[in-house]
Design brief:
The protein is 32% helix and 25% strand. With 59 residues, the chain is an alpha+beta fold.
Length: 59
């Protein structure tokens, strides 16, 4: 179960997701289905925030 999710995304919309298990290290997510529903929510918010800030220019 992922408690922390990091989304790295470049200008070409290529994304890399890292997730942290309850007491583990951040690791690259090989399959997006490996993230629990709460982690997917965090990942979606991270991508949305990046899009608004970098692409649309919103603050």
């Amino acid at each position: 179960m992922a408690q922390r999710v990091v989304v790295r995304q470049n200008i070409d919309f290529e994304a890399e997701f890292l997730a942290q298990a309850e007491k583990g290290e951040l690791r690259i997510v090989e399959n997006i289905r490996d993230i629990d529903p709460y982690g997917m929510l965090l990942a979606g918010l991270g991508v949305k925030t990046w899009l608004e800030k970098e692409v649309l220019g919103k603050k």
